[in-house]
Amino acid sequence: MSANQTRDILTLRGVRKSFGEAEIIRGVDLSLHAGERHALIGPNGAGKSTVFHLISGHYAVSEGVIALDGQEIQNATPQRINRAGLARSFQITNIFPKLTVYENLRMAVMRRFGVQNTIWRFISSYPVVREETERLLEQVRLQKRRDAVAGELSYSEQRSMEIAMTLASDPKVILLDEPMAGMSHEETDYTVELIKSVTQGRSLLIVEHDMNVVFSLCDRISVLVYGEVIATGSPDDIRNNHKVKEAYLGEEVSV
Ligand SMILES: Nc1ncnc2c1ncn2[C@@H]1O[C@H](COP(=O)(O)OP(=O)(O)OP(=O)(O)O)[C@@H](O)[C@H]1O
Ligand SMILES: [Mg+2]
Q1: All domains of the chain in start order, with CATH
Q2: Is the pLDDT of residue 17 over 50?
C-alpha cells in the first residue's frame, strides 16, 4: 500500500458501551485505512458484533467518538450512516425470499436512489436502475441465477446476493460479520475471492474466525479481547505477538 493510501476512512476513539451494569466495550481505539482490508478478531463474546452495531448505528455508544471519512457518526441513525457511505452485510430482513435474485437486487438499487414504494414499479424500468442491477449481478457472478427465487438459492449463493445488496449503496466502507460462517472449504475459498474482488477500491472491516481466511484476505488485523483492542498490526505482527498468542490464538496458528 502506498503512503498516500494510509488516510483513515473510519476511526473509533475511546468507544465504550455498557448494557446496564455490564461494560462490554471498554475504550476501543481502531483505525481503518482507506483501501485496506482489516480483520477484527477475538474470542467468542469479546464484543466484535457489538462494535459493528455501534459503528452502523444499530446500538448507541455510551461514550467515545466514531468518525466516517472525517464526519462524526456516533449515535446517528443506521440510515444516515448508510447514506454517509457505510454498509454492513447480512441484514437478512432486507431480503425477499419469494422475489427473484434480480428483483431483490433491483430493490436494493432503488433504495440507493431513495425511491419510494409507491412509485417503484414505474421507476424500476429506468435504464440507470437496470444498468446498476446488471452490474451488481455481474460483480457477484450471479447472472445465471438472476431469475432464481432468492429463497431457493444455495447457501453460498445467498451470501453472494447479500454481498451484492451491501454493494448496492456504493459504500466507501463495508462491514462483514462472519460472512463465511457455515460454509464448506470450497464455498469459503470462492467467497474469499469474491470479497477480494468486490472490495477493490473500498475499505473492508471483517469479523472472521477462520484464521486462514483472515491471514490470506487482510492487510491488517486488530485483536479484541474483553472489549479492548489488545493489538493491531500486519498478519505477521499478530502471528508473532505474545500477548495475542496468550490471550487468543494459542497453538492453533503458531507457525
Ligand atoms: N443487547 C445486549 N444486551 C446485553 N448484553 C449484550 C447485548 N449484545 C451483546 N451483549 C453481550 O456483549 C458481549 C459481547 O457480545 P458480542 O456478540 O459483541 O460478541 P462477539 O465478539 O461478536 O462474539 P461471537 O464471536 O460469539 O460472535 C456478550 O457477553 C453478549 O452477551
Ligand atoms: Mg459476533
Answers
A1: 1-85+172-179+187-255 (3.40.50.300), 92-170 (no CATH)
A2: yes
